[in-house]
Amino acid sequence: MSEIRVASRYAKSLADLAMEKGLMEKVYADMALFSKVVKENPSFASLLKNPIVTHLKKQVIIKKVFAGKVSDLSLSFFDLITKKNRENMLAGIAEAFQQQYYTFKGIQKATVTTTFALNDDLRKSFKNKVKEITGATEAELEERIDKSIIGGFILKIGDRQIDDSLQSKLKDLELSFSDKTYVKAF
After folding, report:
1. Got the DSSP string for 110-173?
2. Which positions ≥6 away from 2 have C-beta within 8 Å?
3. What is the DSSP letter of 40?
4. 4, 62, 81, 150: which could form a disulfide with 166 (CB 3.0–4.6 Å)?
């Protein structure tokens, strides 16, 4: 079975348990923290995937890093996954849990790239556009600044992309000029 499917199944089980115990928000925060730690510490991510380090050592390290920072449910879950020798999948499970949380809450994540920082009005406008396109009840924006797009914006929603940047328009114009030869009209 693929790693993504396994991670998704573990995340689903955790989500069901968290919902049953009324800890969905807390477990979501815990999984977001775990993802953040993995992204900001490549050595921790490498440790989780390292076959030379024993599972017991990994279990102790995970407990020391997250004890007191995450809920008992999340800590028990990390412990269970480590006992099953699947600690290399914890990062994927945390990501899959977050995706399931967004689906459960009706939240659509999107990324908007502009040449400048968004003000509140533009941010609200982009969020409304994302809701309109996807039918989600709420939108969460990740904002990026990229001067190379010259102007305009690039909005990514899942696997869809709306590219209204000057850079892409200039490329389109360049392609249209290169495809057609100039013929003088008589």
Report:
1. EEEEESS---HHHHHHHHHHHHHHH--SEEEEEEEE-GGG-SEEEEEETTEEEEEEHHHHHHHH
2. none
3. H
4. 150
Q: How many CB atoms lie within 10 A of CB 73?
A: 16
Q: At what angle do helices 24-40 and 3-21 cross, to 10 degrees?
A: 140
pLDDT digits (tens, 9 = 90+) for 5-57: 999 999 999 999 999 999 999 999 999 999 999 999 999 999 999 999 998 99
Are 154 and 171 in contact by the 8 Å Cβ rule? The answer is no
What pLDDT score does 186 carry? Answer: 58
What's the pLDDT at 4?
A: 87
- Under DSSP, is residue 107 helix (H, G, I), strand (E, B) or coil? strand
- Within its chain, how far is the Cα of 169 from the centroid? 28
Mean pLDDT of the chain: 90
Query: Checking DSSP bridges between strand 107-114 and strand 138-145, what pairing results, if any?
Result: parallel
What's the CA gap between 80 and 128, in Å, rounded? 41
